[in-house]
Structure formats: structure tokens, C-alpha cells
Amino acid sequence: MQHGFIKVAAATPAIRVADPAYNAAACVALAEAAAANAAQRILIGGKATVTEAAARVFAEAGILLIGNESQTVGPENAPMAVHLILLGADIVLLEGLVLSHVPAGKYFLTAAPIHLGGCEGAPCRAILMKNEE
Questions:
Q1: Per-residue pLDDT band at 3 (split at 50, 70, 90)
Q2: Beta bridge pairs of residue 119
Q3: What's the confidence (pLDDT) of residue 130?
């Protein structure tokens, strides 16, 4: 962490239709290639849905944070199972990001949530800055 920011990897991988395990592994591989320190925090651009199989891959890989553009990281009609897998592995979820113009690479991320007592989630203002290292 530097100046209150954490390093993250942002990527939009080539995916295979109906192959969530491959797609999750592709995201992890891109993150690892971006930077060893950032590989534990992944931002996924585009209309992506994390399935239960993909969530297990992320959990087993030791991912600390997953951010995406959708309003939920799991399937919109049934996100609970994916949330339980990810949150059970202590993976922080950052949903509803705008990543459409963010190229793959290393970044600094700050996403300070609003303090809401008794809540399990809160809105935040996420700021992403290019890492010039």
C-alpha cells in the first residue's frame, strides 16, 4: 500500500462461452502477469458474471478483491451462492465499477466506503490511477 492506495490488476481476458472455470483461470493468469503484488486484486471489465465454479477458482487462488462493472458479481437472478463462496474466502467485492475505458495493466485503487452502521455493504467512490512503476 502506498499513500492509502492498493495495487490492482485490471484486465478483460479472452473468454470461452459456457466455460467459467477457464474464464476465471484466465482472469487469474492475466492478473499474475500484470504484477505479482497486484495478482491478488482483480478488476474485471465488461459484462462478466462470476459463476460458482469461477468463484471457487478465485477462492483457491487466494484472491483478495474482485471488482466488476455489474451490480452483482454473481448471476443477476441468483447471486447468493457466488457471494457466499467469495465472502466465505474473505474476498472483498467491489461491484458497479465503470471500467469500460480502462486498459489492462497495473493501477492504484482506493475505494473508501461510506460508514453505515449495522450494514454488510456500502457505496463507495472508487478511484483508479495508473501505476507508473
A1: very low
A2: none
A3: 83
67 closest CA partner among 102, 19, 33: 102
Annotated domain spans of the chain? 6-130
**Backbone dihedral region for residue 101 (phi beyond 0: left; psi -120 to 50: alpha; all else: beta):** alpha
Given a contact cutoff of 8 angstroms between Cβ atoms, the answer to whether 111 and 4 are in contact is no
Distances (CA, A) of 79 to 1, 7, 51, 91: 31, 27, 9, 15
Cα atoms in the Cβ-side hemisphere of radius 13 Å centred on 127: 7
Per-residue pLDDT at 17: 84
Q: Is the dihedral of CA 64, 32, 36, 11 positive or negative?
A: negative
pLDDT tens-digit readout, 23-71: 778 777 766 665 455 468 888 888 888 889 889 988 988 889 999 988 8
Q: Distance between CA atoms of 99 and 81, rounded to whole angstroms?
A: 25
CATH architecture of the domain with range 6-130: 3-Layer(bba) Sandwich (3.50)
